[in-house]
# Entry
Amino acid sequence: MTTTATLASGQGQSVLVEAACAPKAVAISGGFEMTSGPPAGHLPIPEQSIGGGPFSGGNKPVRNWRVVAQNSKTGAQTITAHAYCATDIPVPAFRHNQVTATVPHLEALSESSRCSKAQRRMKKGKKTPKRALSGGGFYSPFAPGTAVLPVHTESRIVGRTFVDTVVNGGPPGGSGPLTLQAQAICF
# Structure
């Protein structure tokens, strides 16, 4: 499923785009596309690409994929959120870990999240299986015009962990608090 929206022209303008799965389907992963320019250097900055959004009448956060982007300069941009959906599967669990640190200009901050270990309960003589990691997302809010600008340089699975890394792409010499949340999607 995809949903497209326009990010208004102007530095600091933001837009939330949600791609929703059909009823009874769950979002097992997601992603985004963003236009840039013209001219060069005019681009949207992704702030969030994460699973979430309640079912109508419920609160299981597995039906939507949410993308938030801010405009870096003038010129409207197009933002598209993608939700990869499945039916007749167990509802995934979403695990989140978050870090906040003062990050100097061009320095990096990383966070990771992994699925919980299996509980040792016995079911018909078998151990409960571990939850498998299928994907993940990130969340890194920032205020326009501050000394921090999270530029995502890594957002992927490494072994059994989902890792996200940002670099402070704010103004030279600037540093400040940067928050990063990594999300693991577990089956």
Notes: Residues 1-89 form one domain. The chain has no helices and 14 strands. The mean pLDDT is 87.
